[in-house]
Specification:
The complex is a heterodimer. By secondary structure, chain A is mainly α. In chain A, about 70% of the residues lie in helices and about 0% in strands. The chains are: A mainly alpha, B alpha+beta.
């Protein structure tokens, strides 16, 4: 039986790396859930049922973390005992801050109606491209053991991911969701 | 009528190793119950061969509730005491019920709490949980009569979009009806299972479920027997009933010129509107005649009247696709569920949006119950699960109230369940030993715009300096979508005591109380039955002895006859007292004092039989 504290990568039986095979993770996830989901314990006693709920929850958390690039990156850093909650301004660098400000100004400057959809889409493509670059760098840095570099990449990824989310919310507002 | 006659061919009665479990679709308008039989899952009919049980309950003074078709028929004549669409009332406050009840159908008990409303009926106050339990009891009775055994569990379906309070109340209703819930299953997931039965489909399926009172859209990904919900959305205040209402309003304007109508007239008009809606599913246009008014309504006119409602359904589809990061082209199949999807206008709108026609080959009224029946069979262990698994999501974000009445999201919507998320809190005063948490559900930023779920009070935090105590609160949502909260003080490992006050409906104590009452009633019922049985046994014995004395009274001495006769008198007295225990006692006594007599009769008749005379002849000769 899996341990609730088991490393997510070990849980899925895959090597600890930022580069992952999403299809393989999906397969392993479904196999494990088929064993541990509370539905498999529908007529077990309360104790076993509760254990199944906890194990299945842990499995869901592991899957959710591993399939999301930003959560996966954060998880890898915490496995290396890096504190990602507390940010030292000096770790971020001026270049990152400048770029962020520019992108945000671009987003805020767009008109508030549907006419901005094209611009939003362009901005989205730009930010997505930047994010992919940062992810590649993060992967390389981690593999080479350059942890402080990786941590800086992570913050960059975090900024870009948040920005992407905001762009999407902007799209939704204009589409009247 | 024999029950077996109305079953379909190939429908075998269950074998003894089979454990009895059912799937229940507890619908706004109609409810169904399904079970596995002979390797298939079938909807169980009532004695008249009807599959749909109208979710209508009539309460009359001093008599048991009337559920189903009869209650539905009574809804027009006795609207005050007949509860329809009770599912819409689950998890609602009195104000919410009043606001949504435009025709003034529900009479609320003014003595009840705003957050735990009940309806006034001729048989006292009934809250939505009790009414739902009465519907469940009717379904349980149908299933147990049919299967000739006690149910061991049930899967009950709920709209995917049901919040925690609505789910909790559905579970409470099952408890009150004495039913073990194996799982609360989301209706669209159940429907997808029903459609996925014969096919080894892989891909993305959208389930469009427009029931009587609720609307759900779910997007599922099917992979090797695993049905994983990617996103779900909906509107718990949109359903087929709304189309009736729109039509009834239009009719009211045509027939009465917008004059205010009494409840009886409104019920009649609504009933008529419902008929017209059904006719328009098959006909291009319908001749209308109501009172002394007549007119005509075409299908296109009806579609125009309902345009806003239809647009709302498509808007939800867009939202769900976006939440799942899918586009229309990624969708392999669309499944239609719920009676209201029979409306051609709905089918046309769905076909237009997705660019392909939806699947409709399973009766939209039955798909959910069949899916629930399949899941019940698997959960109870009658059917091998193999890789079959249903992974649902929580439909609404769960959060807690933070500073400035803002919501801090803990578990975002569309997270696969079960899920646990922990959050650490600290004390802000020296020696603080208690903490309050307010849990809300919803997507909005402000607490007031979300739905309050419960207030949690943590006590027994060890007194420390401000900020030193760290309380780790774990929010756990189980596979039914129900929330529980566990709190632990991190530095000492001490579990904090949690008091839960649900914001809607009844708290655990009230439910316990209701359960106790229903158990007491069950006790009364059992006693009544024991009495009836004892009375029957006693009178049968007395009749037999009377008849025997008439025939063979000569076999008894005077003293013996006196003893038997006095035992009969005592038994009659016991019968007047209506106590099953005493009746039993006296019956036993009479049995004992008359046993010698019975033995002598036996000898006599056997003796006569041996001499070649039949017992009949002996009887004749003695007359």
């Amino acid at each position: 039986m899996q341990k609730i504290s088991q490393n997510f990568f070990d849980l899925f039986g895959i090597p600890e790396s930022f580069t992952v095979d999403l299809e393989l993770i999906g397969e392993k996830y479904r196999d494990l859930q088929a064993k541990f989901h509370p539905d498999r314990f529908a007529h077990a006693d309360e104790q076993e049922k509760l254990a199944a709920v906890q194990q299945s929850s842990y499995l869901n958390e592991a899957f959710d973390t591993l399939v999301s690039p930003i959560k996966r990156a954060a998880y890898i850093l915490t496995l290396h005992n890096l504190d990602i909650e507390h940010v030292d301004q000096s770790e971020l660098g001026m270049d990152l801050l400048m770029e962020q400000m520019q992108l945000r100004e671009a987003l805020d400057g767009l008109s508030k109606d549907e006419s901005a959809m094209m611009e939003l889409s362009k901005l989205k493509t730009e930010v997505t491209g930047k994010l992919q670059q940062k992810q590649q760098s993060f992967s390389l840095d981690i593999d080479k053991g350059k942890l402080s570099m990786a941590k800086k990449r992570f913050y960059e990824m975090q900024f870009l991911t948040k920005l992407l989310k905001e762009i999407e919310i902007n799209e939704e507002q204009r589409l009247g969701y | 009528m024999s029950l077996l006659q109305i079953s379909e061919p190939g429908f075998e009665s269950p074998v003894s190793t089979h454990r009895l479990a059912v799937g229940i679709d507890l619908g706004t308008t109609n409810s169904l119950v399904a079970t596995g039989c002979g390797g298939r899952v079938e909807i169980l009919p009532d004695l008249d061969g009807e599959y749909l049980l109208p979710s209508v309950v009539q309460y009359r003074k001093g008599s048991p509730p009337v559920v189903g078709e009869k209650a539905k028929a009574a809804a027009v004549a006795d609207p005050e005491n007949t509860v329809i669409s009770v599912k819409r009332l689950l998890g609602k406050s009195a104000t919410e019920i009043k606001n949504s009840d435009t025709v003034g159908r529900y009479r609320l008990d003014p003595s009840r709490d705003e957050k735990a409303p009940a309806l006034l009926t001729a048989n006292g106050s009934r809250d939505p949980v009790q009414v739902s339990a009465d519907i469940l009891k009717a379904l349980i009775a149908r299933a147990e009569d049919f299967l000739k055994g006690k149910l061991e569990g049930a899967v009950i379906t709920v709209p995917a979009y049901f919040n925690d309070a609505q789910r909790q109340q559905t579970r409470d209703a099952a408890r009150l009806a004495g039913l073990k819930v194996l799982r609360l299953l989301n209706e669209p997931t159940a429907a997808a299972v029903a459609y996925g039965l014969d096919s080894k489909d892989q891909g993305n399926v959208v389930v469009f479920d427009l029931g009587g009172g609720t609307f759900d859209v779910s997007l599922l990904s099917l992979t090797k027997g695993v049905f994983q919900v990617l996103a779900t959305g909906g509107d718990t205040a949109l359903g087929g009933d709304d189309f009736d209402n729109v039509l009834a309003e239009w009719l009211s304007l045509q027939v009465f010129g917008g004059k205010k109508l009494d409840l009886g007239e409104q019920s009649k008009l609504l009933h008529y509107a419902n008929q017209i809606k059904h006719q328009l599913s098959d006909l291009e246009s319908v001749e209308l005649s109501y009172a002394d008014w007549s007119g005509r309504l075409s299908h296109d006119q009806f579609s125009t009247l309902c345009e806003d409602l239809i647009n709302r359904t498509i808007k939800t589809c867009r939202r769900v696709l976006r939440d799942a990061s899918k586009s229309v082209g990624d969708i392999d199949n669309i499944v239609m569920v719920g009676g209201a999807t029979r409306m051609p206008a709905i089918r046309a709108a769905v076909t237009q949006y997705f660019g392909k026609p939806p699947l409709t080959h399973i009766d939209p009224d039955r798909a959910v119950a069949i899916g629930a029946g399949v899941q019940a069979e698997i959960l109870i262990g009658n059917k091998a699960a193999n890789n079959f698994l249903l992974l649902d999501v929580n439909p609404l974000s769960l959060g807690i109230e933070s500073m400035g009445e803002l919501v801090e999201k803990i578990i975002p919507r569309n997270t696969t369940i079960p899920v646990a998320r922990a959050q650490e809190f600290t004390t802000f005063k020296h020696g603080q030993t208690a903490m309050k948490l307010h849990v809300v559900q919803g997507e909005r930023e402000l607490v007031s715009d979300c739905r309050s779920l419960a207030h949690f009070e943590l006590r027994g935090i060890p007194p420390m300096v401000a900020g030193a105590a760290k309380v780790r609160v774990t929010f756990q949502v189980d596979a039914d979508g129900l929330l529980s909260v566990i709190a632990e003080e991190c530095s000492t490992g001490q579990t904090a005591e949690i008091q839960v006050k649900p914001s809607y409906g009844l708290d655990a104590d009230s439910i316990e109380q209701m359960l106790k009452l229903s158990h007491e009633h069950a006790q009364e019922d059992m006693e009544l039955r024991a009495l009836k049985e004892a009375q029957l046994e006693a009178s049968q014995l007395m009749e037999a002895i009377d008849a025997a004395i008439e025939v063979d009274g000569g076999l008894l001495t005077k003293e013996e006859a006196r003893v038997i006769s006095s035992a009969i008198t005592e038994l009659k007295q016991a019968l007047d007292k209506e106590s099953s225990g005493r009746i039993h006692e006296q019956t036993e006594k009479l049995n004992k004092v008359s046993s010698e007599f019975a033995a002598r009769r036996m000898d006599l008749h056997i003796g006569k039989g041996l001499r070649g005379e039949s017992i009949d002849a002996v009887d004749q000769s003695n007359k």
